[in-house]
Amino acid sequence: MSAPFLAALLLVQGTAIPLDEATLVVQVDTQGVARETFRLLSRRISDSTSGWVIASRARWMGRPPITFTPVLTVAPDTSPETLQYDVAANGSSQRISGQPGPGRYTLRYVGPGMERAREVAQGNPTVILDDSVFALFLFAGWRASTAPRIVTAIYPRTARRLQLTITDLGTGVTTLNRDPATLRHVLITGGDDGPVHVWLSPEGHLMKVEIPSRALRVERRPG
Description:
The protein has helices spanning about 5-10, 135-140; strands at about 15-30, 30-45, 50-60, 65-75, 80-90, 90-100, 105-110, 115-120, 125-130, 150-155, 160-175, 180-190, 195-200, 205-210, 215-220. By secondary structure, it is mostly beta strands. It has one domain (about 5-220). A 15-stranded mixed β-sheet has the order 8-7-6-5-4-3-2-1-15-14-13-12-11-10-9. A hairpin with a 5-residue loop joins β4 and β5. The chain is globular. The two termini are about 30 Å apart.
């Protein structure tokens, strides 16, 4: 099931309310390498919030192009629940599904001639991240507090598990699409890529991600 289809289905069923929708432009140095669109929805039962759904589609312009399409549901405390994740390249695709269990997160992989499963130990708290899909950094940003906080990050495509430190550095001045911007600055350290800078709007929307070790910058397109 594709991310746009799932998001539309949730809306039709009346179980989700759209909160945010945007396009992210990914650059390495000054060269555009990918574009990602995402939609964030609030899941509701009656009048109470019961978590969120984020549906994303990231297309990397390599040879061949690769498309990453995760749909992640999260609980009210932003802990990961179900994951549906399609990876497509060169006419072939792989489906990754994720499901939480007591103390673990189970990942299943289905592709041409292949089916396997992995269990990854969860921590408290846990986030789902990916080094090629940047909308997922939103929930890591929401986890940040002024005191450094250790979280467990699970990377579904490789079943990696890393301990990251997330710190809310408060309001900072940066640039967004070459214009000055004042945004909330969240620092993530401890991963393979070194420091990751996540920038959020005052409303908590994802605006920008920077990974200096990769010379990578992800910015929300205006409009």
